[in-house]
Write a structure and sequence with these properties.
Strand content: under 5%
Distance between the termini: 46 Å
Pfam families: DctP (PF03480)
Keywords: Signal
Radius of gyration: 21 Å
Structural class: mainly alpha
Order of helices and strands: HHHHH
Number of strands: 0
Length: 123
């Protein structure tokens, strides 16, 4: 984040440099967090931890309660309403991409790929 007046005071070249740096940082952060999540999940599994996922019914109930909290906060504070409006509008817009890219978004499904042994035999 940067103050709008401070941003406007920067040269166009500096603004573009900062945009490029922010994009690179975002790409690095996404790759780093995915790698860390992969390694941490394996550590849990190696330690014998059972990973459970919420049922669809539980997720629906959690969303219902979340929606109640969001609406209450939005009605109590105009700033909350502004933030929620922006977030929900983005999520609705993003839903199109999310829905058409499933189940491949953020990863590939692992069905019908060559085995690692087959690949390694080519090395």
């Amino acid at each position: 984040m940067i103050n709008k007046d401070a941003w406007d005071a920067l040269s166009e070249e500096t603004q573009e440099t900062l945009r490029i740096a922010a994009d690179a940082t975002m790409a690095w952060s996404l790759a780093w967090s995915e790698r860390q999540s992969t390694e941490a999940t394996q550590k849990f599994l190696d330690a014998g931890v059972t990973i459970n996922q919420f049922s669809e019914e539980d997720l629906a109930r959690i969303q219902e309660v979340t929606n109640e909290v969001i609406l209450r906060g939005a009605c109590e504070d105009p700033d909350h309403a502004k933030v929620y409006q922006s977030m929900i509008a983005y999520l609705e817009h993003y839903a199109t991409w999310r829905d058409v890219s499933a189940p491949y978004n953020m990863s590939r499904v692992m069905d019908n790929l060559p085995s690692l042994e087959e690949i390694e035999a080519c090395l």
